[in-house]
Structure formats: C-alpha cells, structure tokens
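Researcher: I'd like a structural prediction for the single chain below. Treat it as a standalone chain; there are no partners to consider.
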Amino acid sequence: MHQLLENLWEDYLTLTPDAKRIHDLFATNGETIVNDHIALRTFNRGAIALDAIAEYLAQFGYKAVDEYHFEAKKLRAYHFEVPTDLDAPKIFVSELLLEEMPQAVQDICEGLIAEAEQAIAEKGLSLPMMPWRTISAGEYELLLKHSEYAAWLATFGLRANHFTVSVNHLTQLASLEAVNELLKEKSFALNVSGGEIKGSEEVALKQSSTMANLVKWSFSDRELTIRSCFYEFAERFNIPGTDQQYRGFVAASADKIFESTNVAAA
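Model: Treating it as a single chain, here is the predicted structure.
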C-alpha cells in the first residue's frame, strides 16, 4: 500500500508544483501533514471501470465503503478505506457514465479505452498509469465542450487529481478557515465554486481546495495551457449526536471540488 501511495504522490507532484510549495509552507510552520484522501478519475468501461479499479485496490487492503452519484456531471463514485488501518488515506474514485455523453464524446473515449484494454491485457493494471495515446488539441477541445471531466481524464489518464491535507492533524492552524487565510496570504488561488468552504460542521465535513495548476501541455499536434491537479484541505467533525468522526464524503461539496480542474475558471 505504501508504495502505491508513494507512486501516486510522486507522479502528482510532477503536475502540481503548488502542492510542493504548500507542503513546504506548512512544514516551515511546524506542521506535519497527514493525508486525508486521494482522488482518481476513470471511465465506466471494461478494465478501467470503477469496479475494476476496486478489484485492483483490494490487493492493497482497500474496500469500497460508500457510493455517490453526481447527476449533472454524469458521474458515479466510491470511496475506499482500509478496514484494518483506519489511518490509511481514503481513496475516492469516480467514473464518467459514457452512455450519457454525446456520441462524439463516446467515440473519442471508446478509442482510448480500447487502447487501455490492450495495455492492461499486456502489462496489467497499475496506478498511476497513462494507458492510451496523447490526444490532439482538437479532441481535447471537443471533449471540453461537453465535459470538463472527460477532457481532463483523456489528457492525463489514471492518476491522482488531488491529495488532501487533514486539517484535524494540523497543530498550528486550528481550522479550515485559518488554512484558507494562510493560502490567500501566500497568493494561492482557491476554488470559490459553492464558496471557499464547501460543507459545514452540521454535515460533519468542511472542504476547500486550490484551483489546479495551469500547465502548458503538449497535445499530439500543439500546446495548450490547461489545468492539471490541485490540493485539497478537509476538516472533519463528529457525526451529530455521536462521538464518532465522520469518515465519508458529502456529494454536494464533492460536486464543487470537481470544478477545481475546470479550464473555464482559468
């Protein structure tokens, strides 16, 4: 499990220079960062479908705990935990429901999935993984018109789109509000869709995130400036009326967190 998480983290850092800067900023302030969760994206087809990813994660001890649906974005998701190690980071995996996408989107994505099927048949599934060709800028722009999620996934493949700082484990920054103030003071751009802070103590989870880094990306035919990956921050509370901390996710908040990679916000 630790090697899986390390591989995902090192790959993520190559696309997310803000994460390293924030990590170093917190360390300078005397903080030890604990990861609350990681998120990945996929298509709902064959060897890379959500259920196939679940089988892959099972070898590292991860079990699906809850299921989530995002009707407007045409997504389904599970969050995974390690029952024998509740300190292990949770993993949130979502999949795009391709059958609900326009035919032009399906055609591009089905071609990529066929390449992924072949790659996995030859080498097996591993994470992180770029299991298909580099798409063209034209394909990216077509996907983007219909689904920011599809465009991101077709571009970047099977890799972490964010890691998450557990605010509960910070010692110098006492709240998510304090984290956000420090980030803004250091000129990091926050995702303000749905407000800087998504959720509340009443739903036992508050979340915020940076906007994904802008990167120059080489498509098969030309370069475009697009958004890569982002850093999230989560503060968890006890489930109302209990002394148990909430371990799940709030769909309405997660829906807005997805938008941290939206190019339209560039």
